[in-house]
From TrEMBL:
Site positions for Important for catalytic activity for the proton relay mechanism but does not participate directly in the coordination of zinc atom: 148
Domain Enoyl reductase (ER): 12-338
Subunit structure: Homotetramer.
Organism ancestry: Bacteria, Pseudomonadati, Pseudomonadota, Alphaproteobacteria, Rhodobacterales
Catalytic class of the enzyme: oxidoreductase
Binding site for NAD(+): 175, 195, 200, 262-264, 286-287
InterPro entries per record: ADH-like_C, ADH-like_N, ADH_Zn_CS, ER, GroES-like_sf, L-Threonine_3-DHase, NAD(P)-bd_dom_sf, Zn_alcohol_dh
Subcellular location: Cytoplasm
Binding-site residues for Zn(2+), renumbered to this chain: 38, 63-64
EC number: 1.1.1.103
Protein species of origin: Tropicimonas aquimaris
Family: Belongs to the zinc-containing alcohol dehydrogenase family.
The protein's name: L-threonine 3-dehydrogenase
Length: 341
């Protein structure tokens, strides 16, 4: 089968012929139809320090997908051939205390599809049946292919009660933009999104009813004043990994404000802890999606009017994958989806 492989320890990915994976008794084989390119895939393409430390070569990459089940392991009971699905790309173990307590998303032994085990940028993917998420008819393949990052957005946005709250999102990448749409959907009052890239802020406005702020051009304190917030935002969703953005978030939060951190800073990132203490701010780190609570919630929201379609800005056939990766590496696109069908 065709697959996008990290075949050499250097910049790039290569389309290669590899064997169709053999499934075990608890797995299914999925014929891939659409895949999303993630920031993680760009790290692997770029072969940066994180990728070199993490990804064994050769490795079939990719973890954002939708497809159809074509083969079922002998012990799998509740799935059928022909079932359309996406799936959770974090594979958990069975040993840790967290998993045995039912907190699957906190398993320290988590392995990543397309990072530590062969991935979804391929004609076929082997996935444990446990990780499969069936897709209802109302969710098509390209939305199915971006449920992984939408799940990051949903997990982060639902970390705190947003109903009637003023929400600041720093970073209008695909995930920040989708988090803005979720915040709106669940009933936030004001939703403000910041970035330094005006293309991305323009995209945010196309996807969600948000107030965009280019922090290079506008002072966030003026926006707080303009929107009539007395003290500042109630909740911050950090989605840039940028030090200045986090500082700005802490500054513009109200007393007792809450922050959910999804963005990954490139290295150690100093924080003015006394500001956190005196403002009595609560901070929560967010990793991945809650397995499977986030999936249930996001599918329910999509079936009830949450619309993130416009965050997909580019679609390519998989043979044009290079163009897809170049578009993502440009840093101004929304989600880029590759078609494998
Ligand atoms: P992205 O890189 O596409 O978007 C980040 C955005 O932040 C960019 O548009 C950038 O211009 C903007 N930005 C840079 N400086 C800024 C500043 N000073 N103020 C405001 N915005 C600024 O990333 P993405 O794919 O949308 O993902 C968002 C973040 O979440 C990334 O840091 C990513 O690594 C991280 N992530 C974490 C998890 C997790 O499980 N914790 C999962 C997926 C992604
Ligand atoms: Zn992803």
């Amino acid at each position: 089968m065709k697959a996008l492989v990290k075949a050499k320890p250097e910049v790039g990915l290569w389309m290669e012929q590899v064997p169709v994976p053999e499934i075990g008794p608890d797995d299914v084989l999925i014929r891939i139809r659409k895949t999303g390119i993630c920031g993680t895939d760009i790290h692997i393409w770029n072969w940066d320090e994180w990728a070199q430390r993490t990804v064994p070569v050769p490795m079939v990459t990719g973890h954002e997908f939708a497809g159809e089940i074509v083969e079922i392991g002998r012990d799998v009971e509740d799935l059928r051939i022909g079932q359309r699905c996406s799936g959770e790309g974090h594979l958990i173990g069975h040993h840790s205390r967290q998993v045995r307590a039912g907190k699957f998303h906190l398993d320290p032994e988590t392995k990543g599809v397309g990072v530590n085990v062969p991935g979804a940028f391929a004609e076929y993917l082997c996935l444990p049946a446990f990780n499969v998420v069936p897709l209802p008819d109302g969710i098509d393949d390209e939305i199915g292919a971006i449920l992984d990052p939408l799940g990051n957005a949903v997990h982060t946005a639902l970390s705190f009660d947003l109903v009637g709250e003023d929400v600041l999102i720093t970073g209008a990448g695909p995930i920040g933009i989708m988090a803005a749409a979720v915040a709106r959907h669940v009933g936030a009052r004001h939703v403000v999104i910041t970035d330094v890239n005006s293309d991305r802020l323009a995209l945010a406005v196309q996807v969600a009813d948000v107030r965009p702020v280019n922090v290079l051009e506008e002072d966030l304190a003026d926006v707080v004043h303009e929107l009539g917030m007395k003290q500042g935002f109630d909740v911050g969703l950090e989605m840039s990994g940028n030090q200045a953005a986090l500082d700005q978030m802490v500054e513009s939060l109200t007393m007792g404000g809450r922050i959910a951190l999804l963005g990954i800073p490139p290295g150690k990132s100093p924080v003015d802890w006394s500001r956190i203490v005196f403002k009595a701010i609560t901070i929560k780190g967010v990793y991945g999606r809650e397995i499977f609570e986030t999936w249930y919630k996001m599918i329910a929201m999509l079936e009830n009017g949450l619309d993130v379609r416009n965050v997909i800005t580019h679609r390519f056939g998989v043979d044009d994958f290079r163009e897809g990766f170049e578009t993502m590496r440009g840093g101004s696109s929304g989600k880029v989806v590759l078609d494998w069908s």
